[in-house]
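ok trying this again, last paste got cut off
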Amino acid sequence: MGRLVVFVILIGVIVLVLRSLKPRTRAAPRPPTYPYRKRKSLFSPAERSLLGVLDREVAGRYRVFGKVRLADVLAVDSGVSSGDRQAAHNSIRQKHVDFVLCTLSDLTIVAVIELDDKSHQRPDRQARDAFLAAACSAAGLKLIRFPVKRAYSASEVNAALGELGQSPGGAHRLPGQGS
């Protein structure tokens, strides 16, 4: 009986050794998939409407960029600890703003423009809006908010943009727009 157990163990060891020596065949790697489709448009109808008026009203003075990553507009101060630096960067790296207004000559950032639709009444969006306002204010960057509309007038856009030369930072809401 003892010899039988030793024999079975010996056979098992030989099988394991032979398996380890045999080249392993691996399944062919799956080709990468690209589950993407082109979006119909870069901007919503309201964004496109505002962009048209902005482009027209700032022509010769500013350049408008759309759908800009907040981390490309704001930078984290260098004087903070590495943990705080990372947390601050994480707060801005995946957020975007609707439009950024820059000078023509050197593309210096002048203002951030946000278009507020009904989603901005949700608590999570209100928290994001408060964060954006505080971050822009801390950076000395003007934040201008427009309520979503079907069309925008040159006079309302010019009224909002007319304040660009005044106090930097802070948020400006157009008349008739809630907080």
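PB: full thing came through this time. The beta strands are 62-69, 96-103, 109-116, 142-147, 171-173.
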